[in-house]
Amino acid sequence: MISILRFLPALCISVSLLTGWALPGSSAWAAPESAKADSKSQKTFEGIEPLFYLDSKRRPFIEPFHKTDSDEYFICRGTVGEWYRQLLAQDFNKLAERDGMPPVSGSTCALHLIATHSGKKLPIVAVEMFPGADDMRSCVLAETCPQLRTVMLYVKDRTLYRTFILGDAKRRVKRHYCLDNQSKILAEKSCWRHFEGD
């Protein structure tokens, strides 16, 4: 059984709501309060749409479709910018191809908030993608992930890095990668481990 909680160290990630991150075509990852969840009425252009539609407490403007004591799952539409979701899917597929894992389209996707009790007690933000609806149901509802695809955010020196976690339960393959904001692989381990020696 592969569960995301097995990959979270106690002080895994310190993510701050910052503007001006050096992401291609983006100046912020949180939508303004006035935007709310209704992104359908606004035309989307890469570079204008934010990475995520979250409030100042790192909360989406919609209700979760699944919730446990420590985890909340939201549909990606209306919570993750469309251009950013496509970028994440491309990066997942580039990494999955290295091990012959199935690709993801980005349409079967969940924004995952993980409760934390450190710092400002804001939740850790992760995005989970799945090859298909059955994989999503198994991973989210049954907590057994046959095909794990999780990306977690890591901020260092006002720059966003991303830890990609990929797993294939049947083949017992599990990989961690740290990517920069240009989708370059910096290390074959989590970003917090990669930077811990700095």
Strand order of the largest sheet: 3-4-5-6-7-8-9-10
Strands, count = 10
- Helix fraction, binned, reads 10-25%
Q: Can you give the mean pLDDT?
A: 79
Instruction: Compute the separation of the termini in Å.
Output: 33 Å
Can you offer a commentary on this structure?
The protein has 198 residues and is of the alpha+beta class. The chain has one domain (4-195). Helix content is 16%, strand content 29%. It is built from three helices and ten strands. It has helices at 82-98, 133-141, 191-195; strands at residues 19-23, 26-28, 66-67, 71-75, 109-114, 124-129, 147-156, 159-168, 173-179, 185-187. The strands form two sheets. An eight-stranded antiparallel sheet has the order 3-4-5-6-7-8-9-10. A two-stranded antiparallel ribbon has the order 1-2. A hairpin with a 3-residue loop joins β3 and β4 (71-75). It is globular and about 40 Å long. The N and C termini lie far apart (33 Å). The relative contact order is 0.18. Residues 1-46 have low confidence and may be disordered.
